[in-house]
Amino acid sequence: MSTIAVLGAGKIGESLLSGLINAGHATEKLLFTERYQQRAEELTERYGVRNADVAEAVEQADVLVVSVKPQDIDPLLELISPLVTPEKLVVTLCAGLPTELFERRFAAGTPVVRVMPNTPMLVGEAMSAVSAGTHATEAHLETVEEMLGSVGRVVRIPENQQDAVTALSGSGPAYFFYLVEAMIDAGILLGLPRAVAGELVVQSAVGSAAMLREGEGHPVIMREGVTSPGGTTISGVRELEKHGVRAALIDAIEAAHSRSVELGAKHRADPSEGDED
């Protein structure tokens, strides 16, 4: 069993640790780094996993999961670059940052796999997309897929699609939360207590997602199944179309994609090279 070090135990890092433990990974084969002592102690107490300094974690682990904010990546890479060898697998969960950045800073031949997860990892329902760097093999990808499979679903994609994934599923939960928030507010406007409105909307979202996952049909067909001639639903849908909700969502996802490209461009050897098709 590989020793895994999570470098940066924020929400996503903690969720991965929890998922690995629930999947049967031995706690003595897990490490994490956390700069805030109080949080480090809380995580150790909660999961029985040891907090280590960064150098020790890199030295002892076979798999290094980089889970820091993109703006914090340069100090971390400066610290660990002399310590990372090609025998270690580097898994980056940093939004927008290309594998080329890590390959350029680490020893030649170091395998890197780029991952775009999302926050439902907190409840074991993440959607993660993985892409192989130049030196990552099939075995490396399988290792990452097994690891991430403990906290949700995984798909493989070419790296030039990662910015689109970041915009769609990486940021996607925020769009759903935004819609749920608006629907709850509408329920309150119509006289429902907030708790009741919340229960109605959230369970409707859970049930609708379950129907989509079960493959009941294309979303258009499923929506038509709720939309009776001259009924309440078609009146509501007409207002959504009148206010351009569909176009607004598409524009929002395009804006998130542009920002992801922008973040990555700062860390490419040639900033003029984008990840777009």
UniProtKB/TrEMBL annotation:
Pathway given in the UniProt record: Amino-acid biosynthesis; L-proline biosynthesis; L-proline from L-glutamate 5-semialdehyde: step 1/1
Pfam families: F420_oxidored (PF03807), P5CR_dimer (PF14748)
Record domain Pyrroline-5-carboxylate reductase dimerisation: where: 159-263
UniProt GO molecular function: pyrroline-5-carboxylate reductase activity
HAMAP family with a match to the protein in the record: P5C_reductase
Reactions performed catalytically: L-proline + NAD(+) = (S)-1-pyrroline-5-carboxylate + NADH + 2 H(+); L-proline + NADP(+) = (S)-1-pyrroline-5-carboxylate + NADPH + 2 H(+)
Protein name as it appears in the record: Pyrroline-5-carboxylate reductase
